[in-house]
Amino acid sequence: MVKLIYILLALTSASHATITADASASISVTVASPADVAQAYGTLLGERNCNGIPPESLHGAPRGSIELLILCVALTATSNQSDVALKVIPFPNYARSLRTVETGGADVSAESIWLEDISSANLLYSDPLIRSMEFEKGLYVTSKALLDRHPINADYIQSLRGITVKNWAYDWNLLNQITPHTVSATRYSAIYQMMLRERADFTLLRFVNTKDMTQTMEGTPMYPIPGIKVRFSGSRHYVISRQSPHAEVLQFHINQGLKRLRESGQLHAYLQAMGLGLEQTQDWLSLPQ
């Protein structure tokens, strides 16, 4: 069982108030998280506070754990405290954690949510963590032979078979826009099994910020098709339960923290740790055109 990760976040009850270190004014802020994200964040944090982890040390860390770290750093950015900890509550999956925030069982989400998926009747949401067209992925293959065929362009991609989990609506929709040859996997690990059996040619993965951006998934080496990437329309936001007694206070401080992080360039560094906005892919062709 994933252990809870406790962080003390002091807020006053007044709207748009300043975060304070006064223990008498402290409240516990609960964060609903998928269990794998909570576990990865706990491993990432160790005995350190969230401000003690430099973005350049995060390359290869799961995206959700980095987003939870950014949430913590954003809240401390408007605080006079050196450390903030969140009470992270693990749930079996993303859908359960989001539903818990919607129904008031937790104050805020650990991960960002696509704007189109946010129920405004139940949720407040932050300014964008990831702006529209900032979220991007590479087209990864298991066979290097596919990388030796030239020219690599949009027409070539349309000749290949792309695979992803059909329930991942945004990935599935984008995959169908760049190739007519799509294959549906039932689960994450099946993607790589089917590619190794040559039932599909490529899948969509977030980049890793290394020189060649090669990565290993489920023990399988994965290589990015050079010169091509996909970008997702739509922005991603943290969500706050409208039932939380501190909803507007949390929304204000998250927004102020994100603003400071973006203005300082630190948010860009965190996004690069997630494989977004990399210098290596800056001039690559973006699909769909």
Keywords:
289 residues, D-Maltodextrin-Binding Protein, domain 2, 7-stranded mixed β-sheet, 8 helices, alpha/beta, 2 domains, 3-stranded parallel β-sheet
Can you lay out the helices and strands and say which pair or pack?
Blueprint: E1 9-10, E2 26-27, E3 30-34, H1 35-45, H2 63-76, E4 87-91, H3 94-102, E5 108-109, E6 113-114, E7 123-125, E8 135-141, H4 154-158, E9 162-165, H5 169-178, E10 182-185, H6 188-196, E11 202-205, E12 215-217, E13 220-232, E14 236-237, E15 239-241, H7 247-264, H8 266-273, E16 285-287
Parallel strand pairs: 3-4, 3-5, 9-10, 9-11, 13-16
Antiparallel strand pairs: 1-2, 6-14, 7-15, 8-11, 8-13, 12-13
Helix pairs in contact: 1-2, 2-7
Gist?
This protein has two domains: 9-130 and 237-274, Periplasmic binding protein-like II (D-Maltodextrin-Binding Protein, domain 2, 3-Layer(aba) Sandwich), CATH 3.40.190.10; 135-233, D-Maltodextrin-Binding Protein, domain 2.
Provide an overview of this structure.
The protein has 289 residues and is an alpha/beta fold. 29% of the residues lie in helices and 22% in strands. The protein has helices at 35-45, 63-76, 94-102, 154-158, 169-178, 188-196, 247-264, 266-273, and strands at 9-10, 26-27, 30-34, 87-91, 108-109, 113-114, 123-125, 135-141, 162-165, 182-185, 202-205, 215-217, 220-232, 236-237, 239-241, 285-287. α1 crosses α2 and α2 packs across α7 (247-264). The longest helix is centred in the last third of the chain and has 18 residues, at 247-264. The termini are far apart. The model is unreliable at 1-27 (pLDDT under 50).
